UniProtKB/TrEMBL annotation:
Coiled coil: none annotated. This is Aminoglycoside phosphotransferase domain-containing protein. It comes from Rhodococcus rhodochrous KG-21. Residues 43-285 form the Aminoglycoside phosphotransferase domain. It comes from the Bacteria.
Amino acid sequence: MSGTLTDVSFIEAWFRARIDHLFREPFKPTDVRVLEVDQMSRGVSRQTWTVDVEIENHGTRRFVVRRDHEAGSIIASSLFDEYSVYRRLEGTGVPVARVLWFEDDLEWMPDGRPAYVRELVDGDWRLPALADHSPDGDAERIRLSQEHLDKLALVHSVDWRLQGFDRVLRVPESPAHCALDLIEQCVERIASYGGEPSPVMAEAVALLRARAPRTCDRIVLCKGTNGLGEEAWRNGRIVALSDWEMAVLGDPAYDFAQCQEMIPEIIRNGHRIWGLPEALRYYAERTGTEVTLDRVAYYRELYGLLQFTYTQHVAATIRGMERAPLRFVWTATEVAFRSELRMAKHFAGDLMKEGFV
């Protein structure tokens, strides 16, 4: 049988065929009915769909179907690797949605494309309290920031060898080589895409290699993109860490460089109450691991190269397509241009500002 992700009858037949994967023992229903299938609007790298299912005598449940766009993925990491990260996080204490199965059977792949199914964790990515910049809101903003830091520390504490992450993600030669190894991954990938040479990238890579920090004392599992918009919250706590497409084994500073709005700068009467230095001290107290400001700054610079890498992956994906998706064209052109500006800023200044004599 074959069908589309918008065909409720096909999705219902698919879920019935995989009913043994849907639920944990001893809860084993004999039938399910799909009520609704919707595509979520958030997310860029891949597609995320929700499936509402009615379970006999047990009400309704919601599941998630995750797959690449028709043209492929924007991020270079594979869909199966993303699924494998979720699978290996089970039992570690890291809050993530439970993945149920990876579908690569031609008979059941929606629209003929691989997909994986996971449970939907009830939560919301929005945190209205972060927008309260009044003195009365300081304590709650700091508490939310600390909750996020606690969960990052939990990710970094995962025994990645025991969980088999070394079979999914590349392992740096040593903690001191984390930055250099990440650069080499980017360079190798970009070379494999066969795009046009980029003098900006070449100059940036040379500088990044020369300035690569070597003070990292341990290799940890890093999430990648994290922070506001990337996690599910409920009652002021993180209930699920999502979006693992840029996960790596490396320096914990890599994650601090990619925090989105979860380390607010709070200064009252000229006195710093909270910010990155305080967040790093809090993290060190919780973990015994020191992450320095200069390493975080370095990985923020390196992000321009990471961004350029996935834009070149997209360019290679759509090269030769007669009608490429607009999102992919925009990423391969506008985002690529901006990533080069970001890299150039560190050796040529801000090229978006005009110079006046």
